[in-house]
């Protein structure tokens, strides 16, 4: 079976490069230019620094056992770590499932079951939302000593939950014994393949709407090419 790409809308051809390929080219051309600025976190990264951080996270994900085609959820507000995880998952061919930070336990449960994620990255809290408390209500196993994989009948695919605090990523404390720490996961790296994704593969899934409506709004599936 042959795959075809049809372009209409001008004489300039589509790039046809994956996000990791295009990002690597930009890094090689502008390594010392500013790539990302997070005013709430008071942090700035050049393209070189961003690329190094992305590779570190990608190595950590591979070290945790994630492989091409699996799914990792993130339940978080906007921050640099969210960007690193998006770029790192694209680097290794894993689909990132973006979960609305305004979700409550019922909506979170629906998102996790529908998306069938193998891992979940989460921040401790934001404003009046205590994400850890809501997770503990859905996953009592988080209060048990940390194991290699979780064991919950309602979320059978979910293997691990990783917490990170965007205000102090390197000083994040473990709020419950069954949670992994983001800073430690990123240090257990393994080698990366030269390219783990194709331009026709799914980049991410967005669970952004309320599920109170019937039927729920279906998720969006962006592709991983420019």
Task: Provide a descriptive summary of the structure in words.
Helix 2 crosses helix 3. The chain starts with 18 loop residues before the first helix and ends in a 19-residue tail after the last strand. The chain has a single domain, classed as 3-Layer(aba) Sandwich (Rossmann fold). The radius of gyration is 18 Å and the shape is globular. A hairpin with a 2-residue loop joins strand 6 and strand 7. It has 6 helices and 10 strands, in the order H-E-E-H-E-H-E-H-E-E-E-H-E-E-H-E. A 6-stranded parallel β-sheet has the order 9-8-5-3-4-10, sandwiched between helices. A two-stranded antiparallel sheet has the order 1-2. The protein is of the alpha/beta class and 226 residues long.
Inertia-based shape: globular
Uncertain runs: none
Q: Structural class from helices and strands?
A: alpha/beta
Q: What is the succession of H and E elements?
A: HEEHEHEHEEEHEEHE
Q: Strand order, biggest sheet?
A: 9-8-5-3-4-10
Q: How many domain regions?
A: 1
Strand-residue fraction?
15-25%
User: For the residues shown, what is the average pLDDT?
Assistant: 85
Oligomer: single chain
What's the CATH class, please?
Alpha Beta
CATH topology name, in short, is Rossmann fold
Q: Distance between the terminal alpha carbons, to the nearest Å?
A: 23 Å
Number of helices: 6
Percent in helix: 25-40%
Radius of gyration: 18 Å
Largest sheet: 6 strands, parallel
Total strands: 10
CATH architecture: 3-Layer(aba) Sandwich
